[in-house]
Each structure stands twice: as structure tokens, then as C-alpha cells.
Amino acid sequence: MSHNKSKIRKLTLISLLIVTPLGFLTKFYHGPAQSWIDNYAGDILYQIFWCLILFLFFPTYPAIKQIPIWVFIFNSIIEFLQLWKPPFLEGFRYTFWGRMTLGTHFDWQDLVYYLIGCFFGWFWLRQLWRKGKEHEKTS
Predict the structure, then answer these.
(1) Which positions ≥6 away from 58 have C-beta within 8 Å?
(2) Structural domain boundaries of the chain?
(3) What is the pTM of this model?
(4) Of all residues in the chain, what percent are helix, strand and coil, respectively (each to 5)?
């Protein structure tokens, strides 16, 4: 089983090396559908990113289902917190890292894209698990 987790972690790191730059690129993209890519494609990739980060630390079969649920719940709470506008949060929200982690304004549509991102995150984790299991069978 340790070979399986080792392979899964390696595949998860490779996945993060793909998803992370893509997520940042959505914030700097200029072209067709710029607003959608910035706001919603970025939301989808952000959910996948957090699913992968958590799976890196908890590469278990039950985690494949649990991680996307918790990522959705946590990020939905963060979205609703955007309705709260205390000065200390507002200052942070208008920095690059604040926009990346907390967002700047509440948008109901974000929740839909969080759900889509968590679905893709679940699917991605499932694929990583399968690849890890295939590696275990051939080792």
C-alpha cells in the first residue's frame, strides 16, 4: 500500500504543477471570454487545486469522496463571508493574495462553479487513485 500512496502523491504533485499555473493564468488572461475565464474558470480550478492539496496529505479511498465535499463547504463559507466587510478584511481582499484566497465580492454564481470544480476535483482524485492502483498491480 505504501507504493500506492507514494505513486498517488507523486501524481498529485504533478497535477498540482499543472493546475496551479493554470489557475493563476486565469487572472492574467486577456482575450475572448476574459470575464468568464477570470471569474468562473478560475473558480473551477481553485476547487480542483484544494482537492489536490488535501489529497496530497490524505491519499485514501474514503478521502476521494470526502475532500470535494469539504472543499465545497469551506469555499462556500468563504464566499458568504464576502458579504461581511470589516476594514481589516477589505484591506486584505484588495491585495493580490487576498483576491486569490478570499475574493472581493459575493456572487451566487460562484457557488455553481464551486460545485462544478468539486465534481471535477472528485473525478481527478478518482483517476489518481486508479493510476496508483494500476501502478501497484504492475509493481
Answers:
(1) 67
(2) 2-138
(3) 0.87
(4) 85, 0, 15
